[in-house]
Design brief:
This protein is an alpha/beta fold. Helices cover 33% and strands 17% of the residues. It has 12 helices and 15 strands. Bound molecules: N-carbamoyl-L-aspartate and zinc ion (ZN) (2 copies). N-carbamoyl-L-aspartate binds next to loops.
Length: 351
């Protein structure tokens, strides 16, 4: 088989950034995905519906001409988000989810939530207005080992939250462990999860063996091989509550190749290609459509896409770097060949 045609996929976790970088980032996703959940961790964070609406317009303006790529917007939750703001978000029609960042957990999370119990009114409003709560699931206590932060969050924060809010629809973002896979599998049907390509393809050796590799550093951090295997199992199992979310998180080269490098891996230029690679290695290419194109839409209560995307088994060279505003960015697999490519008719790419 030299080509693979799937229902057009959606990306249920994406960072597009803002300003001069936005146009250099959005076209990669627009060439691949029908829709994407757009993360609100800008500086300053998008804590009001008005700010989200203005960002939505900037994304539309930065989309390639003729693109129908649809941004599904999110609101940034803080300790002080009033229920009325959730109501405005729902009424906007543009906002599909509210994002919970534990304060200090990741990039631009300083305005995030310090104690989830402070948000009970907002969380009740999210459930009432049929929005989804997306969660970066890591605790931030300095004494908690970085490799345990997800597991502690699930036990100490997420389990009680799901108990307290019995109607709330939750997406646990970017799963990284076998433990998290088990938590989602045994959780209620209103709990879904995204899985990134880097967590399907790499483990912590790829970050730390033979030299430290800043372009493989993201949060939650890459874990053990047995965790990667559990994530592959979950993604390729046909279980409808695991779905695609790239967490493509661009940072300029100088911010990654730095004594204190930023967390985030830029996968947008090869995102669906990486998933195809991971699914093929697992002998599960026939399961890619469900994971990439059906289950996320079903979970969010949105219609599935009706058009298709075709990949060709044709090696493609990833450039060493790509334009990013007035600077450069290094994508995953920079300088390497990747086994899958978009077919020419669906690839309006310019590097
Ligand atoms: N995943 C990351 O490592 N970084 C993301 C934030 C996030 O999704 O946690 C970013 O915005 O850079
Ligand atoms: Zn995150
Ligand atoms: Zn993210």
């Amino acid at each position: 088989m030299d080509t693979l045609t799937i229902t057009r996929p959606d990306d249920w976790h994406l960072h597009l950034r803002d300003g001069a970088a936005l146009a250099d980032v959005v076209h990669w996703s627009a060439a691949r995905f029908g829709r994407a959940i757009i993360m609100p961790n800008l500086t300053p964070p998008l804590t009001t519906t008005a700010a989200v609406e203005a960002y939505y317009q900037r994304i539309l303006a930065a989309r390639p001409a003729g693109s129908r790529f649809e941004p599904l917007m999110t609101l940034y939750l803080t300790d002080n988000t009033p229920a009325a703001e959730i109501e405005r978000a729902a009424a906007s029609g543009l906002i599909h989810a509210v994002k919970l960042y534990p304060a200090g957990a990741t990039t631009n999370s300083d305005s995030g939530v310090t104690d989830i119990r402070r948000c009970d009114d907002a969380l009740a409003a999210i459930a009432e207005h049929d929005l989804t709560l997306c969660i970066h699931g890591e605790v931030t206590h300095p004494d908690t080992d970085i490799f345990d932060r997800e597991a502690v969050f699930l036990e100490e924060r997420l389990a009680p939250l799901l108990e307290r809010h019995g109607q709330l629809r939750v997406v646990l973002e970017h799963l990284t462990t076998a433990n998290a896979v088990e938590f989602v599998r045994s959780g209620p049907t209103r709990l879904g999860a995204t899985i990134t390509p880097q967590h399907l393809l790499m483990n912590r050796n790829d970050l730390l063996v033979g030299g430290i590799r800043p372009h493989h550093y993201c949060l939650p951090i890459l874990k053990r091989e047995r965790d990667r295997e559990a994530l592959i199992d979950a993604a390729t199992s046909g279980h409808p509550r695991f779905f695609l979310g790239t967490d493509s998180a661009p940072h300029p080269r100088h911010a990654k190749e730095n004594a204190c490098g930023c967390a985030g891996i830029f996968t947008a230029p090869l995102a669906i290609e990486l998933y195809a690679e991971a699914f093929e290695r697992a002998g599960a290419l026939d399961r890619l459509t469900g994971f990439a194109s059906h289950y996320g839409a079903d979970f969010y209560g949105l219609p599935r896409n009706t058009d298709t995307l075709t990949l060709a088994r044709r090696p493609r060279a990833m450039p060493a770097s790509l334009p990013y505003g007035d600077t450069r960015i290094v994508p995953l697999r920079a300088g390497d060949e990747i086994p899958w490519s978009l077919t020419a008719d669906t690839q309006p790419e310019t590097a």
